[in-house]
Amino acid sequence: MWNMFEFDAFHLARLQFAFTVSFHILFPAITIGLASYLVVLEGMWLRTRDNVWRSLYNFWLKIFAVNFGMGVVSGLVMSYQFGTNWSGFSQFAGSITGPLLLYEVLTAFFLEAGFLGVMLFGWNKVPPALHFFTTCMVALGTLVSTFWILASNSWMQTPQGFIIENGHLIPQDWLAIIFNPSFPYRLFHMAIAAFLSSAMFVGASAAWHLLRGNDSPAIRKMLSMAMWMALLVAPIRAVVGDMHGLNTLEHQPAKIAAIEGHWENRPGEATPLLLFGLPDMEQERTRYGLEIPALGSLILTHSLHKQVPALKDFPKEDRPYSPAVFWSFRIMVGMGVLMIALGICSAWLRYRRRLYHSRPFQWFALCMGPAGLIAPVAGWVTTEMGRQPWVIYGLLRTRDAVSLHSTLQMAISLLVFIVVYCAVFGVGYYYIFRLIKKGPQPVTELTSQTAGTRRVRSQRLSRCVMRRTHHEHRYLGDLVCHHCLRHADVYRDGWFRFRYWDAVQRGA
């Protein structure tokens, strides 16, 4: 009998991990897309030298930094839980999952840590091309991190490339382990979802400013770029999701049956698609089901005649908890449909030249901001709960992977996690919303930072503005000689800002 509300140590350990991983996924869902977005913004600035792009880059860089830091902290907590709460899993499969996490640290984390400082603080200290390179490396690091984490998770869903000796898994073929059957679909699905989450986040921020009357060029570019992403990427995500579903049907048919709330097949009839209903694990039926005949077979098998495996085809102890995955899947799909609708609406309004003036659309875009976070959380609930009762599908049950703790210990630790997470990450999100409310720096202010300076061609001049004496030499910069260069703040676009106002006045 299924009971999801038994508060023993086992269920509390599951609840604690679900809480921490749900919190954690909120940060990579934004970080991955924002990192690539920053690459585009800086690349456009380098190409056009339009300070609107620079303003947008500086604005989103701060938000990226805060979000990245919270993601790193929440990710470390998850790693520790493998040893504290899930020692059975670590002992059984640590020889496979451990190296995969190590590869993530040695490649992605080192890449991000090595270039992040230059990316955050090197705008005026390194050449433009080098700074752009660091931004690209940080973005690459987020994608490499996604690669290794999803390789590990996908292997837990579709394990292969190992042998079992003395109750432990021994890796035999690392290529088979990494590139397991579900890995390509899960990797592309998650990467696209992260780009869409960032697009919804950026689009909602722009819509909020437009609703408040801030119709600056930077805000318009934010909304325009976000809506292009929604229009082009959301349909691709639907196609990749369909391919992922076919792969899941092949390797985890019980998960598909639970997602569909499909209990039994009728002889000679195709599988219907249940739009809504209430799966009942005890009575083994879906109550109040609203179904479309044969559509389930068409979507899942691309045929009107083939049947999909039903939950009653599997032993009761091997069935996932259908009510949870049934609704989490529909929430994820619903968010995806709304994203496609948002992209189509934006294209129509862009054609009518009303994209920046339609308040109903701006409210729609603003309300879709949380959808970028709800969709990946619902998707991971579907993925992870659909794998139950296995932690490594077909090899290790979740109950056999948990550490031996008392119910009181798990309850106290869960309570501490809830309090600390809500306090720490609540402050982090509050600061992010403060940054969003402030908005991008106006281009006029950005330009005024170089007030009192001027750019001229390299030439032989009779006097350096930073020196009182006259002398002749070839200038390394456009205005300041190599003797005085150390007395000026050098900007990456060729401007100089002098530290001494009298020198500025003399050079004006």
Automatic annotation (TrEMBL):
GO terms for molecular function: electron transfer activity; heme binding; metal ion binding; oxidoreductase activity, acting on diphenols and related substances as donors, oxygen as acceptor. It is found in: Cell inner membrane; Cell membrane. It is a multi-pass membrane protein. InterPro entries: Cyt-d_ubiquinol_oxidase_su_1 (IPR002585). The chain crosses the membrane at residues 15-39, 59-80, 100-123, 130-151, 187-211, 223-240, 324-349, 361-381, 410-432. Belongs to the cytochrome ubiquinol oxidase subunit 1 family. This is Cytochrome ubiquinol oxidase subunit I. It comes from Klebsiella pneumoniae.
